[in-house]
Amino acid sequence: MASEVFVRGMLFLSLTVVGIPGNATVIVAFLLLLYQEKRLLAADAILLHLACVNLLVVAVRGLTETLASFRLADIFGDTGCKSVIFIYRATRGLSIWLTFLLSTYQCLSIAPPGSSWASVRALLGHYLAFVFLFLWVLNACMTTAAILFSFSTKNETSPIDNGINVQFCYLNFPSKLSRDANGAIQVGRDVVPMALMTLASLIILVFLYKHSQQVKGLRSSGAGNGGAEQRAAKAVVALVTLYVVFYGADNGLWVYTLTVKKTMSSSLISDLRLFFGSLYAALSPVVIIASNRKVNSRLGCVAHETSAVEKIKNLSSM
In terms of Cα–Cα distance, which of 291, 175, 318 is closest to 230? Predict the structure, then answer.
């Protein structure tokens, strides 16, 4: 096995080891919350959906790349390439838009009750299922190039024009125009929500600063609720910051790939893009677990119940 393929496999293995258990833990915590309270708040529903999508991102890309790099499974035939690239790109885009949706909803949550923005927030929460469906359809439609133009590297041994080398697969576009147009669509799909969620985060930060100045040195009997809102807002800002850093690097490398006239013989740039593009999906559950008290409390209950069961078993065996 070539050393670069081994390093590649280890990088994606690290994403898999962190991302799959992390997102699965968040999903279990919110499902327990849904079971106990019979409903989820809109922000919790968005976080649950985000964790499910991020789990797909890590599993479909991180796990398959790991298996292929270590030659544990022969996944990347033509059908495998089309399936993996389509699912990865669609869920990756969906992860971005869900983060934008979360930041927008949190930004609207700081609006004063009775205002028009508060009404928009209530309307968004009411039709959240339709918003999820729209985002799924939007990102699936914007990823059709993966089905049309991707195929296995087994069928091509020499570099091709207007193609993109992603180690086990090629994206072979029929012309430079089609490649650049697809690249522009992908960049636009990322940059638009990036700019909007950055704006929403700045509004949240300004609100938090003003709020901290107002309550500085004062005691309030309602500080608990305000603290919860502030923790949620800070968690959203942390998620947006992760997104901007990781997907900013991803898109920068993607733009560089589009400037290359011929398909690169090495997949190093594409490997780095995939790594940064999957890093957000792997690390975002860490932020959610560390900052969300609802998740922590459910995980604590599970740990307590597991410990109690083990104690009972130990006593019964004595």
Answer: 291
| Residue linked to tokens 């740039």 | 269
C-alpha–C-alpha distance, residues 55 and 74, integer Å: 22
Q: Which residue blocks in the chain are alpha helix, DSSP H?
A: 3-37, 42-57, 64-69, 78-109, 116-126, 128-141, 144-149, 176-215, 223-259, 268-291, 293-317
pLDDT tens for 77-96 read 878 888 888 888 889 889 88
HSE-CB of 247 using CA atoms within 13 angstroms: 32
- Predicted TM-score (pTM) of this structure: 0.81
Query: Cα angle at 172 between 166 and 176, to 5 degrees?
Result: 115
C-alpha–C-alpha distance, residues 29 and 34, integer Å: 9
Provide the β-strand partners of residue 171.
Answer: 150, 164
pLDDT tens-digit readout, 176-192: 787 778 778 877 887 88
